């Protein structure tokens, strides 16, 4: 999820896009069968002072109208009032849940906004291990511990994030990724450079290519040769970002039916997810693409007909689990997200967690069999 404003280092997980686009209409205007064109050149980092930057795609009239409409709806929703977010009592009984070892089982996205507190990362990763096989982080540096180390200690696989949005050089995260890769290469699914910059228009495609190459060069210079490097962008961005995809070992795609523009995104969100995901795998291949974010909020204000709440959140998670069990989503797709961040706005942004802000599960589920009961 993304925001136009540059996030602070302690709040690296951005807000969800507030533009609802009819993906089905967009794909009709895009040649999905066009070949992927690899960029010639070395794997060395690009000198951005001399590299010719390709312009970002301009906003069309339809997209501008959608932005205006979405903004107006958010203003109205805010005027009505924010929904208070509930948290589970501290004496809740936790339930250990066995999770299978299939590579197609789910991981979960982890917002490290509390990871500077000593012990929090360890506590949260132990809880994550109860129900998921891995994690995806958005940053690595500046925490009490390197998340790669903590993931490895808990036998969790990790998509390790490097934050490069806007003017950030990402060097601290890159160094943390290299350090973690030297110690635990087997724990890393891939190092993911960037998150939704193309949609947010904070970075050009060429700038992201330079960062991907820089990360690869650092790994090679550090003697790490068996760790993949990729990038995470929205499905809409990957429809045209072929040069970036050609540079990546892994194409991470974020897809949210909750922000979709088609009727089926409301009536049957999993169908919307499957359609949009298949469009990306048709373009880049199933072996290269992984679903890096999807989710449904348990509370907050509605968005363009999409209604948050526990019932739909449970249904959508269960549908995603079953969809992944059928072999979809790539190598360890990651669900958004582990626990609520009550500091985010608008109100639905606070509630995408499958756990409350205090890290207690909101309801019973198992990433092998699905949602199994009422609230935990």
UniProtKB/TrEMBL annotation:
InterPro entries, per database record: Beta-glucan_modifiers, GH
Primary localisation category: membrane
Keywords annotated in UniProt: Carbohydrate metabolism, Cell membrane, Cell wall biogenesis/degradation, Glycoprotein, Hydrolase, Membrane, Polysaccharide degradation
Locations listed in the record: Cell membrane
One biological process term in Gene Ontology: polysaccharide catabolic process
The keyword Transferase is annotated on this UniProt entry: no
Record flagged with keyword Cell inner membrane: no
Any one GO cellular component localisation term in the record: plasma membrane
Residues that span the membrane, as ranges: none
GO MF: glucan endo-1,3-beta-D-glucosidase activity
Entry EC no(s): 3.2.1.39
Reaction(s) this enzyme catalyzes, per UniProt: Hydrolysis of (1->3)-beta-D-glucosidic linkages in (1->3)-beta-D-glucans
Source organism superkingdom: Eukaryota
Protein's job: Glucanases play a role in cell expansion during growth, in cell-cell fusion during mating, and in spore release during sporulation. This enzyme may be involved in beta-glucan degradation. Active on laminarin and lichenan.
Name of the featured protein: glucan endo-1,3-beta-D-glucosidase
Native species: Aphanomyces stellatus
Gene of this entry: Aste57867_20766
